[in-house]
Amino acid sequence: xxxxxxxxxTNCERDMHYAYSNILGAESVIVWHQEKALPASTSLVVIPGxxxxxxxxxxxxxxxxAPIMQAVMAYAKNGGLVLGICNGFQILTESGLLPxxxxxxxxxxxxxxxxKLEVVSTDNRxxxxxxxxxxxxxxxxxxxxxxxxxTDTLQSMxxxxxILLQYVDNxxxxxxxxxxxxxxxxxxxxxMPHPERFxxxxxxxxxxxxxxRSLL
Length: 216
Fold this sequence. Notes:
By secondary structure, the chain is of the alpha/beta class. The protein has helices at residues 13-23, 67-77, 87-94, 151-159, 209-213; strands at residues 2-6, 28-32, 44-47, 81-85, 101-103, 111-119, 135-142, 146-148, 163-167, 178-182, 188-191.
């Protein structure tokens, strides 16, 4: 069971539900933010993109306190797989489930385009279907996607192979072109690009499909 979270302002939950249910044939369900427990058969939690709570205060800062997030944090700490995309990535950093933070894009502009990415590490469930060094393309659409971490945190992440994706050219000013990172245990992954928007030829490409399939 793929549990896809929904907050007020989320706008990518149906895209993700379509990708898993219609394209990959997996059982998936949308879980409202006021729920206090995940479905008993959950094997993957997805926190999709959007603008949870209107991105007031700071992107992901309010969603971090939603009732369902207590269950997600417990699930992750017990080794459960969690995938956060765009606003989901921001929520995961705000929750402390991932290191670092996402700040306003360099240039202070919203960016929406197809973006080339390099697969940095495949020693994880999330990118195991790709080749290290492969260049893929995925859509991005964000205003607060510039990744930042302090020097000690960044060094620790490098030593533990926690940097999984980097931008081929840096569209938003992210530290070291970072587009996606995982936690030290490699069961929580956050990325700014949208794999669910690139899962069939009708959408322009299928580079995101292997990522979603590898988690089933």
